Each structure stands twice: as C-alpha cells, then as structure tokens.
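Retro notes (design track)

What went well: tokenization of the new backbones is finally stable.
What didn't: we kept losing track of which sequence belonged to which structure.
Fix going forward: every design gets posted as structure first, then sequence, in one message. First example under the new rule, 479 residues:
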C-alpha cells in the first residue's frame, strides 16, 4: 500500500512538472520586456519632449513629456528621494529582487553566458554547473570565445549608446556621431562605456555583484524577518551547515550521512541548487550577501523534489515563514507602509511642484553702475535681463513695473521675440524724473517688482521678479 501511494505521489509530481513554468523562463521574458522598454523609452516624445532625458548639452530635464530648464532642477531632489526610497522599499519587501530581475549587469551576463556562449556557440552546452568555467584551452573554444566577445562587443556598443540616449537625445546623438571629430567627448564616453561592459561581462562577471556593487552591503541593513528571498527550509531538508555567520561549515556531502543524523531529512544532497547558482553560493548555508534572488536554486530544487512528488526545499519566501515558522509573511507591515506613505508624499510633491512649471525664466541683475543722473535731473538704473523661453513654441516678450507709476521703462521700447528653447540677454533701462527719496546722507535702494510676460499669451506665460532701483542722495541731484 505504501509503495502504491509513493508511486502515486511521484506520478502527481511529474504531472505537476509538465505544467510548471520555471522562474528562469519568467525571468527571461521579464528581461525581454525590460530591455525593450529601455531601448524604446528614449525615442518616445510628447509634444517634442522626451519622457525622460537629462540633457547636459541643452541643459534641460525632460520628465513626463515636459521640459524643465536647468534653473528648474529643484525637481531633482524629489527624483533622487524617489530613487533611493524606492530601492529601500523594494529591498525590504523582495530582497535583491532588483538584482536578479532588472539589473543590467544580470541581464548582460545572461545574454552573454546563456544566449551567446551556450545557445549560439555551444561553449557551455555540456556544462550544467555554472560554477565551472569552460575549457578555453582548446583551439575550437578559443575561436568560439573570440566570436562570443565580438558579438558581445557589438551588443555592448548598442547598450552604451542606449545609456547615452538618456543624456543626449537619439536624434542629436546620431547627428553628433556623423562628425566624431567635433564631438570627441561624446565619442569617448560611448567607447569608454563599451569597453567597461566588455571587461565587466566577459572577465569580471558575477564578481561585480559580489565585490564591487555596494547594494549587497546595503541590503543586509534593510532586511527583516518578512523580507522574501530564496531560502532553504532546514526543517524539512535538514541542517547541512553548522554554525553562524562566516564560521558556518559543511556537515554533510552525502544523503546517507545526513539521514544517519536526521532520518526525516528530505534533502538529497544532489547540490543542483549549488551548481546553478551564478554567484557561486550554496543557498542551504542561509542568507548570504552574494545572493541576487535570481531563483535559479528554487527552479533546480523544484525540479528534483517535484520528480519525487514533494514541494521544493528552496522557496521564494521569508525567514519568518520558513526558518522561524511564525506564520505567513506579512507584506504590509510598519516598515513597508511607511515606505509606501513616504513615496506617495514625494510623488504628490513632485507632481505639485512640476505642475507649476514656468514657461519663461527670467534673471535680473543690476549692472556695475548703480545709477546715472542726467543733466535734466532724470535718474537712470541699468539692468541685465536674461530671458529663457522654456516653451515648445516661440513667443514675443515684454515687461512692466508693478505698482510704481513714478518709474518707467525706456529701453527696450518694443517687445522682442525668442524662439522655442532659446535664451536672450537684454539691457533694460528704468528711469524717473520724480523725487522719490529726500535723503541727503546716503543712496536709497527702493524695492520694485517687474512683471514679464508673453505678449501673445499674457494669461499663461507671466512671471514676476523683485529687484531694486537705486535712488541717489538728494544733494547729488541738486548739483
């Protein structure tokens, strides 16, 4: 009877595996989506503005189809807060899920190792152990490796160009590269990033994740008992390692050794979860900085245990649920709710501030000469007005003094036109023939307000700036 039940369980397990979709396949599809999104995002424009572009060349930030001048980069702190708080929130909930599912480093390594070296060239075709390097000493593999590096070099050049499209719009990027001698800095960046990607993906490999990337060091601070990760169940599988931290050492390498101590242990010690790990760790050892949550170990154990009609010993779960066995994982807890609230507040602040974008920027500076007194007693002050048309179409601009009829603008006398995205410097002269201050001891700075506006859209494009009009001592006027 027990044999029949065992066979029935194994049969059900095999049926389950027929319909089972490994995380690896889901990751590949997710990688494809992320890659396509990353490639096409720089090309998408709304009213001539990109969805996201930090344009150092034109000194502009495009966000959600709205162009902001560099003088409007008060939005950047909100974006940085969103970035870092977003990373913290994702890590608190899903561990290093970013590393395994979206990080360019991981995607590039999968493309090079799994697609180019394994599928296309067959260098790793007979190697199931990702901790084992192919034999590059044979002439055939040496030639294939050269071909693999050449293929990846082309892809690295595309990736480097794609990265630069977020700083130089694609339409300008290709125009600049048509004259490389005039754009050596851009060309240097593209070549430099390409060479780095080649060295990183071909030679540094997962060592980048282990030794260089700072995220692995940050994650341990952000984890708690409810953080989900790839985790081995020692209650079912048995304790393979003894000790804590770096002192942990292996106890059993064979199943019979494990069963002699823990008769109910289900781990077969096949080490499938070890051989598939791209960062060369044994998940049965517990939480490790090197784990990137790629879930390859979950797939490997699911396949082995599924054939035996049992659930995987390695699951994407939390320490609370698997190790401590204190109940279900709590996704909504104080930490994650606070992160979510902070992100919502920052998003609201970002959209609120961003919605108040000015379609015209104006800086007003006094010239070095404080004032000039004409023979007829008229007092003049000169200013430098720096206009910037941040709208997507040209406008004609002019300005006026608000709330002071004793002052008048004598230069310029007519409105002037500024093209879309262009700037213009204008010398402005304000004068008065009235006695504004009767002070014989010192000059007097009088606060004034300047209203500048687009003549063709005075309702929507208008800004006000405060400055001062310097009035001389009264005895100077009498001279």
């Amino acid at each position: 009877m027990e044999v029949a039940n065992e066979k029935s369980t194994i049969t059900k397990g095999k049926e389950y595996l027929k319909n089972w979709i490994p995380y690896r396949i889901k990751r590949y599809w997710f990688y494809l989506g992320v890659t396509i999104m990353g490639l096409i995002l720089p090309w998408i424009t709304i009213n001539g503005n990109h969805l996201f572009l930090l344009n150092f060349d034109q000194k502009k930030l495009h966000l959600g189809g709205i162009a902001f001048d560099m003088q409007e980069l008060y939005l950047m702190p909100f974006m940085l807060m969103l970035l870092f708080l977003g990373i913290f929130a994702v890590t608190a909930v899903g561990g290093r899920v970013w590393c395994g599912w979206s990080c360019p480093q991981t995607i590039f390594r999968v493309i090079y190792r799994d697609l180019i070296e394994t599928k296309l060239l067959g260098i790793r075709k007979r190697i199931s152990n990702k901790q084992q390097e192919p034999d590059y000493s044979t002439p055939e593999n040496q030639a294939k490796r050269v071909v693999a590096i050449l293929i990846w070099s082309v892809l690295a050049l595309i990736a480097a160009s794609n990265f630069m499209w977020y700083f130089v719009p694609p339409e300008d990027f290709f125009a600049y590269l048509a004259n490389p001698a005039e754009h050596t800095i851009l060309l240097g960046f593209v070549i430099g990033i390409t060479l780095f990607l080649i060295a990183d993906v071909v030679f540094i490999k997962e060592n980048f994740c282990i030794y260089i990337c700072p995220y692995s060091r940050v994650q341990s601070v952000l984890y708690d008992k409810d953080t989900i990760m790839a985790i081995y169940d020692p209650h079912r599988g048995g304790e393979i390692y003894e000790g804590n931290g770096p002192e942990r050492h292996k106890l059993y390498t064979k199943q019979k050794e494990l069963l002699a101590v823990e008769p109910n242990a289900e781990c077969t010690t096949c080490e499938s979860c070890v051989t598939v790990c791209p960062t060369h760790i044994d998940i049965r050892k517990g939480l490790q900085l090197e784990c990137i949550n790629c879930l390859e170990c979950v797939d490997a154990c699911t396949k082995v245990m599924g054939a035996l009609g049992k659930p995987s010993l390695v699951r994407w779960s939390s320490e609370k649920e698997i190790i401590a066995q204190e109940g279900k994982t709590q996704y909504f807890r104080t930490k994650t709710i606070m992160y979510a609230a902070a992100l919502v507040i920052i998003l609201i602040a970002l959209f609120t501030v961003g919605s108040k974008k000015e379609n015209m920027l104006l800086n007003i500076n006094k010239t070095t000469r404080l004032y000039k007194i004409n023979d007829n007693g008229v007092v003049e002050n000169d200013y430098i007005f720096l206009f910037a048309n941040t709208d997507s179409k040209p406008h004609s601009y002019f300005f006026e003094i608000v709330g002071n009829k004793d002052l008048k603008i004598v230069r310029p006398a007519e409105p002037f036109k500024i093209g879309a995205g262009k700037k213009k410097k204008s010398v402005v002269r304000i004068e008065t023939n009235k006695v504004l201050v009767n002070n014989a001891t010192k000059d007097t700075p009088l606060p004034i307000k300047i209203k500048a506006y687009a003549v063709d859209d005075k309702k929507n494009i208008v800004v006000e700036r405060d400055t001062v009009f310097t009035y001389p001592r009264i005895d100077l006027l009498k001279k």
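Added context from the reviewer: Residues 360-478 form a domain with the Immunoglobulin-like fold (CATH 2.60.40.10).
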